[in-house]
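COMPLEX REQUEST
Ligand: S-adenosyl-L-homocysteine
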Amino acid sequence: MNLENIDIVMVGTTHPGNIGAAARAMHNMCISNLVLVNPQCPIGEIAYARASGANVILDSLRKAGSLQEAVQDSILVVATSARDRSLPWPELSPGLVAKKIAELNGQSRVALVFGREHSGLTNEELQICHYTVNIPTNPDFSSLNVASAIQVMCYEIFKTVGNQPETRQTEIQECAVTSQQLEGFFRHLEQVMITTEFLDRENPGLLMQRLRRLYHRLEMSKNEVDILRGILSSVEKYKNQDPSSPGDSEDSR
Ligand code: SAH
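STATUS: Structure written out below.
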């Protein structure tokens, strides 16, 4: 069973006990990469006490300054969330997340992202993620302790990956696009839309969020992203070269 490609990412965690309990939950399920984004507490005695011997996870954890930095090499980034969002994001069940991870056969990095104890993930952080997953609960009391949520997700993955027959990696997986490459595409797209005045920098609305949601849903390959960036570059070249190009100036028509 290969679970080495899975990163458990905790964002802005405030209580060291939750980091320790998360380490324990992960070690129970053979998942070992813990990444802390801007932890708001020391990883000391309290964390080690709650880890109950899962010291190896705490000793080898990685820290990152932002969620984007933490997930840059991942081809699948899944946000866990206890609540509905104003702009609904594509959602998977815990079982489907585990299935997607199992299908990758340990060949590509994936990240499961967990939010702050009091406020979860920000909308900006959510937009970096391809999907959200909600653990079904009592609708009147839906917020799990963050380490409990990590336990549930790690168990789902452990169970599913353990039962998955070894298969060959598919072509799509071989050239899957990483989060860093996708973010480069989003920056490029935004820049070109500002240049062509499709996007009003002063009044952007939800355009970029909607486009992010669309492109995340497509699960594009590296090749496909390269084609889209090539098209964007051709628009930039056209705009720079031809002063009478449509959209350059309303007055010239
Ligand atoms: N009040 C916060 C809840 C945070 S709970 C909010 O409004 O989002 C801390 C973290 O635990 C969440 O960000 C999420 O990562 C995880 N979590 C808690 N309950 C969950 C659930 N039912 N499904 C999925 N993740 C959950």
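REMARKS: Residues 248-253 have pLDDT under 50 and may be disordered. The pocket of S-adenosyl-L-homocysteine is lined by residues 80-83, 114-115, 117-121, 134-135, 137, 142-144, 146, 149 (CB under 6 Å).
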